[in-house]
Amino acid sequence: MLGRGLLKRCAVCGSGKLFTRWFRMKERCPRCGYRFEREEGFFLGAYVINLAVAQGMVILLAVVPLIVRLADDPDASILPFVVGGLVGAVVAPIVFYPWSKTVWTAFDLILRPLAAREPTDRT
Ligand SMILES: [Zn+2]
Fold first, then answer.
1. What pTM was estimated for this model as a whole?
2. For 74-89, what is each residue's pLDDT tens digit?
């Protein structure tokens, strides 16, 4: 199920094409009709995932290289690492945005499986 989320697919049926634009997810799965936003504020979890990815990218692109570089040369310029940090903080959340939603949808379904009464149809 999480694999489907990582592939930007519906966690329930595996269908693709869940986005009309990069930042615009369809309300329901075009194949199975699963409503992605299960409750108000549902995608707050996607925001948290996206924030964690961005922070991870900042650590990978700026913090760790800066520590390694300054260990070798304490007078080295920090500008390349600041740029790397900005890329991680600004570009990564934009690029990862759709995956954050599909991964969160899958993660939520793992934690809270569909109830028998929960509508997955198009009603
Ligand atoms: Zn589906």
1. 0.85
2. 999 999 999 999 989 9
Nearest to 109 by CA among 47, 61, 59, 42: 42
54 C-alpha to ligand 1 centroid (Å): 28
Q: Residue 103 is encoded by which pair of tokens?
A: 């991964």
Ligand 1 center to residue 62 CA distance, Å?
Answer: 38
Specify the DSSP element, H or E, that contains 36: none
Residue from 40, 86, 98 nearest 62 by CA = 86
User: Which two tokens mark 122?
Assistant: 């198009």
Domain membership of residue 119 (yes or no) is no
State the total domains in the chain.
1
